[in-house]
Amino acid sequence: MKKILALLLTLMLTLGLTACGQTDNNSSVASETPELVKANVYVLSGPTGIGAANLKDKADKDKTEGDYNVTVVAQPDEIVAKISNKEADIAAIATNLAAKLYNKTEGNITVLAVNTLGVLNVVTPKGIEITSLEDLKGKKVYTTGQGSNPEYIINYLLEKNGIKDDVTLEFKAEGTELLSVWATDPSAIIISPQPVATTLTIQNEGAKIAIDLTKEWEKVDNKSALMMGCVVVRNEFLKDNKETVDKFLEEYKASIEAANNDIDTTATLCETYGIIPKAPIAKKAIPNCNLTFVSGSEMKTKLSGYLQVLFDADKTAVGGKLPADGFYYEK
What we know:
Elements: H1 2-32, E1 38-44, H2 47-50, H3 53-60, E2 67-73, H4 76-84, E3 90-94, H5 95-104, E4 109-116, E5 120-124, E6 140-144, H6 149-160, E7 168-172, H7 181-184, E8 189-193, H8 196-203, E9 208-212, H9 213-220, E10 229-234, H10 235-240, H11 242-261, H12 263-272, H13 279-285, E11 291-294, H14 296-313
Parallel strand pairs: 1-2, 1-3, 6-7, 6-8
Antiparallel strand pairs: 3-10, 4-10, 4-11, 5-8, 5-9
Helix pairs in contact: 8-13, 11-12, 12-13
C-alpha cells in the first residue's frame, strides 16, 4: 500500500509540473504575440487612393486583422499637414511629394511601397490616329501640370524619342480644363492624367486612349519605372509599431490586388468613399491607372531612378536633393 501511495504521489506531482510547464509555455507564446495598434491612414482621392478602397471598406466594417482609420482627402496639402502634426501615421501620396516630405522633415518619413505607376495617357479625338510618340512630331499637345511631374515626364519621354523640340506643349491649369479643349479645337491631341483621360473617352464619341506613357517609359530601359504614387509612414510610428506597419502592408497589398481583380466592386467603393466621383468612370479608369504593389529592393532601384529623372529636370521637384537610402523601407 505504501508503494502504491508513493507512486500515486509521484504521478500527481509529475502531472502538476507538466501542467505548470504548459501554462508557462502558453503564457510565453502569448507574450510574444505582437500587439497591433490603431493606425491613422490618409489617402488622396484619385488614382493614388484607389488601392485603399477595399481596405477602407473592410476597416470600416471591422473585417481587417489590423485596426485602421482610413480617411480620404482631396488635397496633398491636407496630408502634409496631417503628417506634420502627427495625426497621420501612414499616407498614400505622390512619390515626389514623399521625397519633398522626406527632405522637409529631415528624413522623418519612410516610403513603404509604390502603389501606382504612371497615370498619364495620350488621348485622341475621333478620326485622329496616333500610335507612337513619334507621331506627335510637329503637333500641338494640350496637357496639364506645368512646372510639376507631368511636364517633366512628358519632356523626358519626348527627348528620349528625339522629338522634344518638335512638339508644342500647351498647358492648362487644371486637369478638368482638358475636358473642354475639343470644344474649340476638335482635332487636338491631349495628354491627360486619370481619371480625366477616361472621362474624355466617355464624353466624346470615338475618342480613345492611344498611348500609355507608363509603357513608353518602360521602352526607355533606364532601370527605373514611372512610379507616381506610394504609401509612406512616419518614422516615429514605424519605430514603435513595426508589427502594425507590416500587417498594414500585408492587408494593403491585398486591397490593391482586389482593386485589380474585382473592378466592379472597387469602382462602387471609389464612388462611395469619394475617391473617384462616379463609379462608371472609376470602372473604366481603374485598368488604366496601373495599380501595383512594389516594395523592398525593387522599389528602391526603380523609384530612385525615377526620382533621379525628376531631380535632373528640376531639383525642387523632389525637395532640393535626392532622398538617402533610409528613405526606402527594406524589412
